[in-house]
Amino acid sequence: METFFVACPSGHQVPVSINHSDAPVQCPQCDGMLEAGMPRTSLSDTGAMRILEASELAPPAPKSATASRPCPICRTPVSEASAACAHCQTYLASPPDFLRDLA
């Protein structure tokens, strides 16, 4: 049997069976009565559009063409703006100043 939890007016967590969610529930700790109702779930933008029967969702934004270079280790194309290869995690940028000072 599935259950969900509802907070009573005093803040106690009260377990409620999904089958009995329409009936008033009594908190076992403070004897307060509360209306449980069904648990609410979050709704994504896509889910809202499907509910509204949107015939077509907006296409994803096109990827901008960026300059790339091959990784010296695995030869995977890496963006010029990237500091590390996404495939083999090789660090490609120049070392930070504090590391050069240590040498």
Radius of gyration: 28 Å
Let me know the largest β-sheet.
2 strands, antiparallel
Which of globular, elongated, flat, extended, rod-shaped describes the shape?
elongated
Q: What fraction, in percent, of the residue positions are helical?
A: 10-25%
The succession of helices and strands, N to C, reads: EEEEHEEH
Number of helical segments with 4 or more residues: 2
Counting helices, strands and paired strands, the structural category is: alpha+beta
Strand order in the sheet with the most strands: 1-2
Total DSSP E strands: 6
Euclidean distance between termini CA atoms: 66 Å
Low-pLDDT sequence parts: none
Strand content: 15-25%
Residue-averaged pLDDT, rounded? 77
Quick recap of the structure?
The chain has 103 residues and is α+β, with helices and mostly antiparallel strands. It contains two helices and six strands; from the N terminus they run ββββαββα.
